[in-house]
């Protein structure tokens, strides 16, 4: 497992751990590569390369090659074409990457060579509108010939489609989003028919279904316990492999909200709020076996490990490991 961090404190870059998929134990922490503020990471589909965004003086996207000992070798770095890059992802074939720039409100698309090298961005979308509050592009994902972008500042989930040579906007938002919930991250079902958006300000998840003419909202659920009244900012969201359960992180309540998903309708029912045994769970990940969920607690400098009940989806706390400023976990 690789861990992206902020390097303003004790951290030096991207770290590597061994993870025991039988016991849920993390061990053998090692600096994989020294790099400034690698706040989000993505694998190539063949797991030979890792891509990171760096929130330095100038925003950058960087490519690394995995070495035989698990450390990372620098390939190249390119401009993110915007301030504060906070998310990167690749398409299924591994020949394209997309970077979201929170500070700049822009989204850049890159070609990836067979040797893992990133080319300069061949398309950049700017969501800023003169005279309005700044755009805050927070995450973007490919689905076949589509590209979706969550913009927290615009309160939209943009949809683009690939034409002959480039991506073109299809919709400024696949649904109308009321108020200022702040869509941050999202997950798409394997068949592409459902999208689940976690709202940073709203403490909620918006459930969306594809229709013959576009998309429609089918559900809206709070991520918080009814009795919680403090500050909260949602962060990350993931579906289980069998798509029966959905998980979202609460920074403030410091919990993982667990939902059961109706496989017929796509709607959600919350079944658990599990404390993360730490502070400010910015990111989390399900391990490849699906038996464990690991949480990166940014402010308390630890990674908490939970077992996952495959029948109910509920979490049980197992252990925690100290590591500096963890903000992204990658298997």
UniProtKB/TrEMBL annotation:
InterPro entries: Cycloisomerase_2 (IPR050282), Haem_d1_sf (IPR011048), Lactonase_7-beta_prop (IPR019405), WD40/YVTN_repeat-like_dom_sf (IPR015943). Gene3D superfamilies: YVTN repeat-like/Quinoprotein amine dehydrogenase. Keywords: Carbohydrate metabolism, Glucose metabolism. GO terms for molecular function: 6-phosphogluconolactonase activity. GO terms for cellular component: cytosol. It holds the Pfam family Lactonase. GO terms for biological process: glucose metabolic process. Belongs to the cycloisomerase 2 family. This is 6-phosphogluconolactonase. It comes from Algibacter mikhailovii. The lineage of its organism: Bacteria, Pseudomonadati, Bacteroidota, Flavobacteriia, Flavobacteriales.
């Amino acid at each position: 497992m690789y861990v992206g961090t902020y390097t303003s404190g004790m951290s030096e870059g991207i770290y590597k751990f061994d993870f025991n998929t039988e016991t849920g134990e993390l061990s053998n922490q090692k600096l994989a590569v020294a790099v400034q503020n690698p706040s989000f990471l993505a694998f190539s589909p063949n797991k030979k390369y890792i891509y990171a965004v760096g929130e330095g003086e100038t925003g950058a996207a960087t490519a690394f090659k995995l070495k035989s000992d698990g450390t990372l070798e620098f390939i190249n770095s390119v401009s993110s074409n915007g301030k504060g890059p906070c998310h990167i992802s690749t398409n299924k074939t591994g020949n394209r990457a997309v970077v979201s720039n929170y500070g700049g409100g822009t989204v850049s698309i890159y070609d990836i060579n067979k040797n893992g090298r990133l080319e300069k961005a061949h398309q950049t979308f700017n969501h800023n509108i003169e005279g309005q509050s700044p755009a805050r592009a927070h995450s973007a994902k490919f689905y076949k010939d589509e590209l979706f972008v969550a913009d927290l500042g615009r309160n939209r989930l943009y949809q683009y489609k690939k034409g002959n040579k480039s991506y073109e906007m299809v919709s400024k938002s696949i649904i109308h989003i009321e108020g200022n919930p702040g869509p941050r991250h999202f997950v798409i079902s394997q068949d592409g028919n459902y999208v689940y958006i976690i709202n940073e300000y709203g403490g909620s998840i918006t459930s969306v279904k594809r229709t013959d003419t576009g998309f429609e909202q089918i559900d809206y659920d709070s991520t918080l316990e009814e009795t919680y009244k403090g500050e909260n900012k949602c962060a990350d969201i993931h579906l289980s492999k069998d798509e029966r359960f959905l998980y979202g992180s609460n920074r403030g309540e410091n919990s993982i909200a667990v939902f059961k998903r109706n496989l017929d309708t796509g709607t959600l029912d919350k079944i658990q709020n599990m404390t993360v045994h730490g502070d400010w769970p910015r990111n989390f990940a399900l391990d490849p076996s699906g038996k464990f969920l690991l949480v990166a607690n940014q402010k308390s400098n630890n990674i908490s490990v939970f077992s996952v009940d495959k029948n109910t989806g509920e979490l049980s706390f197992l252990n925690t490991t100290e590591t500096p400023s963890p903000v992204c976990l990658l298997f």
